[in-house]
Amino acid sequence: MRQVIIAGHGGPEQLTAREVADPEPRAGQLRIRVRAAGVNFADVLARQGLYPDAPKPPCVIGYEVSGVVDAAGPQAGTGWVGREVFAMTRFGGYADTVLVDADQVFGKPASLSHEQAAALPVNYLTAWQLLVVMGALSSDETVLIHNAGGGVGLAAIDVARHVGARILATASSGKHAFLRERGADEVIDYRTGDWTREVRRLTDGRGVELVTDPLGGAHWRRSWGVLRSPGRLGMFGVSTASRTGRTGRLRLLTVGLGMPWFNPVTLMNQNRSAFGVNLGHLWGETEKVRAWLQTILDGVGEGWVRPHVDRTFALDDAGAAHRYLEERRNLGKVVLNP
């Protein structure tokens, strides 16, 4: 089998391909011949040494794959062999062959390509948890979706449309037309002017009920400032850490110093809340996550879940895929094809 490893922390050049022996499935595992593997910003942070959960180099990263099951271990169920599936992987996804516990594997909808299926788990589960499970978004509310052109951002637009909420989105100007086509009611260029002032203008000074923010640091403070009462701030990443100009863990220090502090008494008095989402820390909640994903799969059939793949790269070009993601050029999901 072929896999891409992080040889050491640093730039995209640290991603290198190697050949290793095919793994054999153990009890409860399925072996998947991968047709597509999702790339996420958490992978970029792991390569840079900024993702605490990632294994130490040399290691293989990657949270989601789609492909065909070709072998099953004891107690995994022989009915899987030969089926097209997609799966959640706790690292190891940057490969042409992976072993996955059977309870993390799902049948691929026939209407989706393998690339689209690989865009489902991380993006849509994160968006569902942010907007519905913890964000409690309702049809009479307004949500502000930051980085709306990214994979999670597009998934969040789908979920918010399904709920019936009003959608404000931030993105660079070149992405605005597409985001309006996807369902955003208003799109704000965060690179020009003061986006907080624009949010207040679009809401007649009241602010929004929910903000989803993957940026971190001082940006969370600004997002907190555009909440009305009652309001919720959903935080799910610190992507600004990748571009502070510092190296190693010093990047996280810069981001941490800008973060807001939340006082319980202030939260009560302002009728606001702040919460965090990290899908990688929900591996012990298999039944809940499977239930959320079943709702998302139902949404594929109903037409409101629309995974959008921006670009595919060959597995050996994982470094180029990371560079593309870091430059924020993507409009939707970036995928590797082994």
Description:
The protein is of the alpha/beta class. Helices cover 30% and strands 26% of the residues. It is built from 11 helices and 15 strands. The protein has helices at residues 41-47, 114-117, 121-133, 151-163, 176-182, 195-202, 218-225, 250-257, 264-270, 286-302, 318-326; strands at residues 2-6, 15-19, 29-39, 64-72, 84-88, 97-101, 105-107, 142-145, 166-171, 186-189, 208-213, 227-235, 272-276, 309-314, 333-337. The strands form 3 sheets. Strands 3, 4, 5, 6, 7, 14 and 15 form a 7-stranded mixed β-sheet that branches. A 6-stranded parallel β-sheet has the order 10-9-8-11-12-13, sandwiched between helices. It has a two-stranded antiparallel ribbon with strand order 1-2. Helix 4 (151-163) links the parallel strand 8 (142-145) and strand 9. Helix 3 packs across helix 4 (151-163) and helix 3 (121-133) crosses helix 10 (286-302). The model has no long low-confidence stretch (mean pLDDT 93).
Characteristics:
338 residues; seven-stranded mixed beta sheet
Mean pLDDT comes to 93
Q: Helix segment count?
A: 11
Q: Span from first to last CA?
A: 10 Å
Most strands sheet: 7 strands, mixed
Radius of gyration: 20 Å
User: Approximately how much beta-strand content do the residues carry?
Assistant: 25-35%
- Structural category is alpha/beta
Tally of strands:
15
Question: pLDDT under 50 segments (min length 5)?
Answer: none
Principal-axes geometry comes out as globular
- The secondary-structure element order is EEEHEEEEHHEHEHEHEHEHHEHEHE
- What level of helicity do the residues show? 25-40%
